[in-house]
Amino acid sequence: MPEKSSIAEALREGLREEMSRDKDVFCLGEDIAVPGGFGGAFTVTLGLEEQFRERMIDTPIAENGFFGVACGAAIMGMRPVADVQYSDFLLLAMDQIISNMAKMRYMSGGKIRVPVVMRAPVGATGRGAQHAQNPESLFMNVPGIKIVCPSTAYDAKGLLKAAIRDDNPVLMFEHKLLYGSKGARAESDAVDGSSEIPAEDYLVPIGSGIVRRQGTDVTIIGTLLMMHHAMTAAKRLADAGISAEVIDPRSLVPFDYELLVASVEKTGRLIIVQEGPRTGGFAAEIAAEVSERAADYLLAPVCRVASPDIPPPFAPPMENFYRPDPDNIVQAARRLVEG
Amino acid sequence: MTHDKDRLLSFYHRMLMIRQFEERVKMMFLEGIMPGTIHQCQGQEASAVGVCFALNEKDVITSTHRPHGHAIARGLSVESLMHELFGKSTGCCKAKGGSMHVGDLDQGMVPAIAIVAGNIPLATGIALSYKMRREPHVAVSFMGDGAINEGAFHEAVNMGAIWKLPVLYVIENNRYAASTSIEKMTALDKLSDRAAGYGIPGVTIDGNDVEAVYEATQAALAGARAGDGPTLLELETYRITGHSRRDPCNYQPPEERELAVKREPLGRFTGKLLEAGLATQAELDEIAAAVETEIDAAVESAKAAPEPLPEDALEDVFA
Ligand SMILES: Cc1ncc(C[n+]2csc(CCOP(=O)(O)OP(=O)(O)O)c2C)c(N)n1
Ligand SMILES: [Mg+2]
């Protein structure tokens, strides 16, 4: 049996393959290519500088600047992969992402392409309020950016390669607890996101979700860490006689509503799990869309399991309260199904 | 300038307090009994103490992801810091902040900002409030060498300069931003040369010499209080511990590191005190014993303090 790869390894191999295949692909970010360094905050780019000296660019700490640089290079046909160490720092690059990357094609009347990939780690992991946010929802409100959220190593590699080959800005959110980073960069409380990776080249199409577990009573949808928590919850629900279907959308933009609506038509119930504040989150968006498309099939109101409307707190008891867990999902499912 | 013995011993006491606090925290972190992540300042004690000891009670500092030394130098109790690091409700931020956000505005320190350079505009704004209300205080922004390449640095320093605000911008140049060396991030020889671009004075000094730091800060503050506007003060130093957590620092050349360890501020200052006959070993030992006792007590009380309740997370969002 082939060995399993962690998400960090899968992303690294995805970058290596795409950089080998296409000399226009390059990476830029902070601490990504320092000999003896970290390989980015979570070891994803570790060692790539040995193979691609000139295409692994360490930047100063200047997120708005180097995301703009990535945009500039991209409109000339390069394929930059820009990363931030924590997704919270996307906020500093917001202007370049939203004003330029997302709008360049539209403003040019469809003439310009912006093939940028952005990578950003999310999740509350004991670091306090400014290194813990899940800003997916903020960017979903910006037309012109595709958003992907791999929860397994297989998807991470396939989606990254698809994103690099895509002619649009693609923002990839990755979860700190799923990377499987090793050594000094390992996370306590990590959750296994590893997969077997095929030897041959493959892509995971952007905008296509996947059914992770079949069920008939309730559909549970979640991305990244929340997908794993949904699977754990589904196993527990099975013991309690409730059959849960688990869907991993893998992309938030475009969103695979066909898959989700078909599932809800079968189960009649939907729980959307979201790490990040409830109000104005992507769960609300999915709930609204499904309520419109599957109104006649819903046996119960669509239910959100999300973080409360607070900044991520530091201390573990409060942080655990902030981050949805399998218990929260099990309780929500029992309420929906058992009434 | 010569300093009286009490002042010299107070420098020593506080620098040692920072060093021992950091060493103890590191040990407990590696043992796994402390949650979260840590960024420590071993080797940079002189900059924290030299700057903060030159401040008046009402002056305010803003700090970074590496704030423990600034907090101790500013006068926050090691107890309130230790409790925060342990995630206890009795910590200086009620366990909502953690290591990267320690601070207490009542004690002249805004909760530290972990977004690199995000704290610099705050200092400019604090100084603006002093100017508008005609208050005689000064704001100080600490920052690392890495912060000066963020847009926020440029925007904030420029506003401080054009409005002639009572603010001091302090770069602790420890030669690295995480793993990336200063040479990779700027084409300057001296970071204080940036000051010319804003029309303000720029000063570079040995940041491991606590007396020199104190004097340079005093001079800059005198100008700021007199209405001359900001100074950009570069303190040359070195971080003799990891960037964060368990960083083994493999990106630092061993020779460079060894030299830096020889020049670290606490050992140097101790040597000077003893050689110049400014203090006896017995006096220093007594201070060290007092520091140990205080840290022991902080650790014990932090371990015994109550954990926050999960629902406590819901409080403090709005005023
Ligand atoms: C805006 C932003 N980008 C990146 C980071 C991640 N990060 C944390 S500390 C650090 C290096 C900072 O270097 P420097 O300013 O020199 O301070 P030092 O760590 O040396 O004290 C980086 C890149 C961050 N916290 N904020
Ligand atoms: Mg530095």
Tally of DSSP β-strands of chain A: 14
Helix content of chain B: 40-55%
Largest sheet of chain B: 5 strands, parallel
Q: How many domain modules of chain A?
A: 2
* CA distance, first residue to last residue of chain B: 47 Å
What does this protein look like?
The complex is a heterodimer of chains A (339) and B (319). Chain A is α/β, with parallel strands linked by helices and 339 residues long. Chain A has helices spanning 7-21, 48-51, 63-75, 90-101, 104-107, 136-140, 153-165, 224-239, 257-267, 282-293, 316-322, 326-338, and strands at residues 4-5, 25-29, 56-58, 79-83, 117-122, 146-148, 170-175, 195-196, 210-213, 218-222, 244-248, 251-253, 270-277, 303-307. Chain A folds into 2 domains: 3-197, Thiamin diphosphate (ThDP)-binding fold, Pyr/PP domains (Rossmann fold, 3-Layer(aba) Sandwich); 210-338, Rossmann fold. In chain A, α1 packs parallel to α7. Chain A is globular, with a radius of gyration of 20 Å. Chain A starts with a strand and ends with a helix. The mean pLDDT of chain A is 97. Chain B is of the alpha/beta class. Helices cover 42% and strands 10% of the residues of chain B. Chain B contains 10 helices and 7 strands. In chain B, strands 1-2-3-7-6 form a 5-stranded parallel β-sheet, with helices on both faces. In chain B, α6 links the parallel β2 and β3 (167-173). In chain B, α1 (5-31) crosses α2 (45-52), α4 crosses α10 and α5 (120-132) packs parallel to α6 (151-162). The mean pLDDT of chain B is 97. Thiamine diphosphate sits between chains B (65-66, 114-116, 144-147, 174, 176-178, 243) and A (30, 61, 63, 85, 89, 92).
Brief digest:
Chain A has 339 residues and is of the alpha/beta class. Helix content of chain A is 37%, strand content 18%.
Distinctive features:
heterodimer; A: 339 residues; alpha/beta; Rossmann fold; 2 domains; five-stranded mixed β-sheet; B: 319 residues; 10 helices; binds thiamine diphosphate; binds magnesium ion
